[in-house]
Amino acid sequence: MGGLALAGSWLHQHVSERRSVAISLLLIAVGALMRELYPQSALLLSSALLGGVGIGIIQAVMPSVIKRRFQHRTPLVMGLWSAALMGGGGLGAAITPWLVQHSETWYQTLAWWALPAVVALFAWWWQSAREVASSHKTTTTPVRVVFTPRAWTLGVYFGLINGGYASLIAWLPAFYIEIGASAQYSGSLLALMTLGQAAGALLMPAMARHQDRRKLLMLALALQLVGFCGFIWLPLQLPVLWAMVCGLGLGGAFPLCLLLALDHSAQPAIAGKLVAFMQGIGFIIAGLAPWFSGVLRSISGNYLMDWAFHALCVVGLMIITLRFAPARFPQLWVKEA
């Protein structure tokens, strides 16, 4: 996902939005269908790789599509898009065990998830045919975001926020099982966190009435900080609250980060390049977070050091957030817009 997001600038220049999204959905569908075959480990890994490539492409392209098509409703649509991403993942995790009970083999159940991708592919191809011109024709701007400090700042910012999410997805159930909770209860906490994410992704962008996103970002980060501190000091007292609060903060921060990057230029071409670069760097950092959390677990013997690390990251992110005043956006991007 990180590597394909970094290729977003190349995609904008050489492949139309319509074809990019269609290719990504096709790859996701093929990756899921591969699981219908005998589930050898190499085949499962290959199917996951195909799915990751498809997701990486669509995540690099879709923010600029939203900015261009919904210029006056970008925050609302971005929130809907983010909530669909998070809710879709939670829905898959919730429905798959039920489907397994009604299928001959578990890997046939995984293959069924190609169906939504195929439906989305046909719906996108039909709907996007209404546009006369492909948006990639407008992406001839000479701006190269890779050489701008702000692009790297946004990438690290996005990565650290999503690193907290990745670590929670990987280790939150294990943490609660370790301190005495059942596997079912631990899994339900993860589901509640996902529910909170979807709610945060819908609500916080809808509250974004002004271009200055710092207040809402601070709110999202504060909710994350409360959640991580709860996991550290009172994990057994109010676990549902900590999971929901953390989910609200993480879910709200994701679309707000995308909006923050899009706000740097009114031109979808420049904004799309910046968002793609931010996601590329960010997903690479986020992908390393669960591994680093495992290292901290091995060193300390528990997960408290991991939660403390992410709490400190949130404090650092709050400090960085203060720099994101619209008046301080790089003037090159503003002039090109």
Short overview:
By secondary structure, this protein is an all-alpha fold.
Care to describe what's here?
- One of its GO terms (molecular function) is transmembrane transporter activity.
- This is Cyanate transporter.
- Residues 1-328 form the Major facilitator superfamily (MFS) profile domain.
- The protein is 78% helix and 0% strand.
- By secondary structure, it is an all-alpha fold.
- α5 packs antiparallel against α9, α8 (149-178) packs parallel to α12 (268-300) and α10 runs antiparallel to α11.
- The protein starts with a helix and ends with a helix.
Please report the first level of CATH classification, the CATH class of the largest domain. Answer: Mainly Alpha
Distance between the termini: 28 Å
Strand elements, count: 0
- By secondary-structure content and strand pairing, the structural class works out as mainly alpha
Number of helices: 14
- Run of helices and strands: HHHHHHHHHHHHHH
CATH homologous superfamily identity of the largest domain: MFS general substrate transporter like domains
Helix content: over 70%
Biggest sheet character: none
Q: What is the name of the CATH architecture of the largest domain?
A: Up-down Bundle
Give the number of domains.
2
Q: CATH topology of the largest domain, anyone?
A: Growth Hormone, Chain: A
Low-pLDDT runs: 132-140
InterPro entries: MFS, MFS_Cyanate_Porter, MFS_dom, MFS_trans_sf
Transmembrane segments: 21-38, 44-66, 78-100, 106-126, 154-177, 183-204, 216-234, 240-262, 274-292, 307-325
Domain Major facilitator superfamily (MFS) profile: 1-328
Protein name: Cyanate transporter
